[in-house]
Design brief:
Chain lengths: 321, 259
């Protein structure tokens, strides 16, 4: 669906993207995960034809982003990091304006607007001005707007940035629903690990303008060596058991009277592992997180950097400049 | 072939309607904007009009009536050029981004925005025209048609000018500053407040390169039957100015950064 080839973007001396190569398959949710300033938004802007790459190129839905920008724009829907609807207009009016911009024929327009409104749960508030919407509702309106013209590819740039945990979960629910009902390929950027883990089929870790790892969340976590089970025995480790005998076990470490086992699929395999064990004192089970993966690849943690601002911060910046 | 062409045209017309609809809705919801921007022209009309009107001037008519066409143009000049600042707002609030990522061409976006500016000007002028009735200004069907046409053309030209500035300038403060250097000369040099027949040569020359001059003159022709040039001459020259300003505007919009 998307082919990115050797994509480079420089701002003066600063290199925001340092030669990206990857492909996104049809109907998958592809996550771009990385700290702020990693180049995620720049990448989205380039793929959405708003920015021109310094070098390299990309094909979106079969169209070249450089030579066939209009076709690319017809194929994509974009939800930007900061809500971009006109808050003087109602939700419905915003959708109508964009339905017109996308040339949706008159006879389909009304139905489609109502469809995306109910898909995003905004039907009851469609005649309220957007300035009366909550942050979560605004994001959902952006999603509704992006889906109006049945895009093949849907870009979501930090869809849950700045939302409270509850709105975030609502948002996840809607994103999953979209994939099911609209059959779109989704490119999603985020710096929340659990978001990427929860939603994405595949994840590309971006750090300093480079992809440092790309795979499905479970495979990425397996890079760490699978799930971690720690079994502590009352006395000492029984000598007659070789955990390596099981094919789902990757690696075994022994420490005093406990063993640490790196293994696949704890849920379905644990009982086989402990079936013949006596005098077990405790079993501890840890799933490796994507953060462990990111740490492994970049030597750098994802958290720590504060999210870049919503409107008030941007307004403050604008007042300063 | 013909049907795909028609289809494309339909889509562009729809896009223009969408862009205009948005401007119009915002305009309707910010009525204070209309009231506030009507104030300055009316102040000129009444204070300068009555004040200078009380002295002895040889202009062939009552001074207040004489500057009435000029005040109509003044309101168009201010409204239209400052309308360009909305493109800066659109950029600040990311609305522009959402438009830029749609299949509408830059030219369509430009024209759609201009239509918004023309609508605002038209409402503004309507208020002044109504007040004109109380000042003893008479209109007929032809003169109203002429006034509306001139107002729309001038507004198109000057919204283009405003949008040109808006596409280069990133901050609103910068826009206000630079635009006031443009708006006041456009107004003062248009002959809105004085006859342009017997001006000193240097001043005369400057009035000639001000598109507002021809609008003021055209309106004076159709409202007061007074004019330096004929209505047709005014219209022709105004259209040439409009074409040039539109082309510059479209060019600027096409090279404007999207993000």
């Amino acid at each position: 669906m998307i082919i990115v080839k050797n994509l480079v973007k420089k701002y003066g001396d600063f290199c925001a993207l340092k030669g990206l190569n990857f492909e996104v398959k049809e109907n998958e949710i592809f996550g771009l995960l990385g700290p702020n300033g990693a180049g995620k938004t720049t990448l989205i802007h380039i793929l959405a034809t708003l920015l021109k790459p310094t070098e390299g190129g990309a094909i979106v839905n079969g169209y070249d982003i450089l030579h066939n920008a209009t076709k690319v724009r017809e194929s994509i829907g974009v939800v930007f990091q900061a809500p971009s609807s006109d808050d003087m207009l109602t939700g419905y009016e915003n959708l109508k304006v964009h339905a017109l911009l996308y040339g949706i024929p008159r006879n389909l327009r009304e139905n489609r607007i109502l469809e995306v409104l109910s898909l995003t749960g905004l039907n009851e508030r469609k005649n309220d001005q957007v300035k009366k919407y909550s942050g979560g509702m605004r994001r959902r309106l952006e999603i509704a707007r992006g889906l109006l013209h049945h895009p093949k590819v849907f870009f979501l740039d930090e869809p849950t940035l700045g939302l409270d945990p509850q709105s975030r979960e609502t948002m996840w629910r809607y994103i999953k629903k979209i994939v099911k009902e609209e059959k779109v390929t989704i490119i999603l950027t985020t710096h929340y690990m659990e978001e990427a883990d929860m939603l994405c089929d595949r994840i590309a870790f971006i750090s300093n303008g480079k992809i440092i790892a790309l795979d499905s969340p479970s495979k990425l976590k397996q890079e760490i060596g699978g799930d971690i089970v720690k079994i502590k025995f009352i006395n000492k480790i029984p000598a007659n058991i070789d955990f390596n005998y099981f094919d789902f076990v990757h690696r075994v470490e022994q420490k005093e009277n406990s063993v640490i086992i790196y293994m696949d699929k704890v849920n379905s395999n644990l009982h086989k592992l402990i079936k013949d064990l006596d005098d077990v004192q405790s079993i501890e089970y840890n799933k490796p997180s994507l953060n462990d993966v990111f740490l492994k690849f970049s030597g750098d943690s994802l958290s720590g950097d504060s999210p870049e601002g919503g409107f008030m911060q941007r307004y403050a910046q604008y007042k300063k400049s | 072939m013909l049907s795909t062409k028609n289809h494309k045209l339909n889509i562009i017309l729809g896009q223009l309607y969408g862009l205009w609809l948005r401007e119009f809705k915002v305009f309707l919801r910010e009525r204070s904007r209309l009231v506030a921007s009507s104030f300055t022209p009316l102040l000129w009309l009444f204070v300068i009009g009555s004040g200078l009107g009380s002295t002895n001037l040889h202009i062939g008519t009552d001074y207040q009536k004489f500057i009435f066409p000029g005040i109509v143009c003044m309101s168009v000049i201010f409204t239209s050029v400052f309308f360009g600042s909305y493109i800066i707002w659109d950029r600040k609030f990311d609305f522009l981004k959402s438009v830029m990522v749609s299949p509408s061409s830059r030219t369509t976006v430009f024209v759609g925005k201009t239509l918004g500016g023309m609508t605002t000007s038209l409402f503004q002028v309507a208020i002044i025209l109504v007040i004109g009735v109380f000042l003893g200004i008479n209109y007929n069907a032809l003169s109203l048609l002429q006034i509306i046409s001139i107002v729309l053309i001038l507004s198109f030209a000057l919204t283009s000018l405003g949008l040109t500035f808006g596409s280069y300038i990133e901050s609103l403060e910068g826009f206000q500053l630079i635009v006031s250097f443009v708006v006041f000369p456009l107004f003062f040099l248009s002959g809105a407040l004085f006859p342009i027949d017997d001006l000193p040569a240097w001043l005369k020359f400057i009035t000639l390169v001000d598109p507002a001059t021809y609008s003021v003159d055209a309106l004076r022709n159709s409202i007061l039957n007074l004019g330096t040039y004929s209505f047709e001459q005014d219209l022709e020259i105004l259209l040439i100015f409009t074409l040039i300003l539109t082309l510059i505007g479209i060019f600027s919009f096409r090279r404007m950064k999207a993000v």
